[in-house]
Amino acid sequence: MKSQPSQASSERSRSESRATSIAVVDDHRFMRDLIMSMLRRQDGRYDVVGEAADIRTAVALCEKTKPDLLVLDINLPDGSGIDAVPRVQEVAPQTRILLCTADVSESRVVEALRSGAQGFVEKTNTWDAFVEAVDRVAAGQHYFSAESAPFIDARYHGVERATASTAALSPREKEVLQLVATGQTSKEIAQKLGISVGTVDVHRANLMKKLHLRNVAGLVAFAFQARLMAPG
Question: What is the per-residue burial (b if ≥16 Cβ within 10 Å, else e) of 128-142?
């Protein structure tokens, strides 16, 4: 007699094969339609549950649908998509967020990292790169595309590797790193830690050297991936 699969096994199988639910936010109708159309052609892997053209509608959409993934444009008519990240996380904490932009700059990359978004992709990328970003962020990983390389050292995209690298840092260097990553100036850090500005600058230089980084964006990326900085 053939054994029947258990209810738990059937539910697990359905869960594992369930399409990733996605909401798309962009103020340009053409771009929204293009993204949604292409996602719907991916062999049923994605379920587009809604769209929005501004932050207010996007937050309401996420509160209602609780999508697995939100594709969020940065330039929106009622504000920055980066600033919308904590609002979305408040109403839909399980929703992972992939930020999109046509403007790649160090400040944008740093702001994206600090916001708590799980990914950052440029609209100038290929469709394949965009799908990779969607797949990785939906799977619980972080994604920062190759165009961000001048600002983020790619070696720190892995949490395990970044965490291991913190062993080379002194307790004071970790303190300075956390404060730099939250956007504080050398003067503010010096006041907070009770040390001189010159000492802070020495710690910053040592951090760059030990971690093989070139700029503040790299430090922010490292702090984020090593979980020295809380998202949001």
Answer: ebbbebbbbbbeeeb
Residue 19 · residue 49 · CB < 8 Å: no
In the CATH hierarchy, which top-level class contains the domain 155-225? mainly alpha
Strand order in the sheet with 69-73: 46-52, 20-25, 69-73, 96-101, 119-122, 143-144
- Between CA 178 and CA 130 the distance in angstroms is 30
Q: What is the pTM of this model?
A: 0.65
How many CA atoms, within 13 angstroms, populate the side-chain half-sphere of residue 35?
29
pLDDT digits (tens, 9 = 90+) for 153-211: 544 444 444 554 677 789 999 899 888 877 678 899 999 999 999 999 999 999 988 88
Ranges of CATH 3.40.50.2300 domains, the chain? 19-151
Residues of the chain with CATH 1.10.10.10: 155-225
**CATH class entry, domain 19-151:** alpha beta
Alpha carbons 127 and 196: distance in angstroms, whole number: 49
| Cα gap 46→3, rounded to integer Å | 33
Q: 171: how many CB neighbours lie within 10 A of its CB?
A: 7
Cα distance between residue 184 and residue 110, in whole Å = 13
Supply the mean pLDDT for the chain: 82
Confidence bin at 151 (pLDDT 50/70/90): low
More confident residue, 44 or 159: 44
